Amino acid sequence: MVDEIDKAIIRILSKDARRNFTAIGKELKLSEGAVRRRVRNLMEKGVIKSFTIEVERGYQVKAFTFVSVNPNTPTPTVAEALRRVKGVEAIYEITGQYDVVALLAVSDMAELNKGIEDIRHIQGVRDTNTAIILRQLRPTSSSYSL
Q: What integer is the mean pLDDT of 24-31?
């Protein structure tokens, strides 16, 4: 179970995964060892899956391509095939009109067109709809909430 102290640690690490245990302990009035134990327990329980960084790659074009899958084709099969398309950064199986959405990040429109064509040629893809990202805004506070 995750208690209020664990939630506070998660909120702090969500804002800055490099924050050291001593600083977290001072903020929460805990010892460095107590913070370390709690983080280790959260990792062992699978609550904290990884510590990552986000790097700006300087891509000029990012887009979401929504994919409708033929009912005779298993959606996971198409989602797995999307992993091999150049420029695909993330794949999500979703609900609604479309079955899968892929985030493409490429250097230019020609590369985006190629990626979309490659997606359309995957066996089982019935239809696609692509939305080019014009601007990305970051939340002012951590997007993590418990």
A: 95
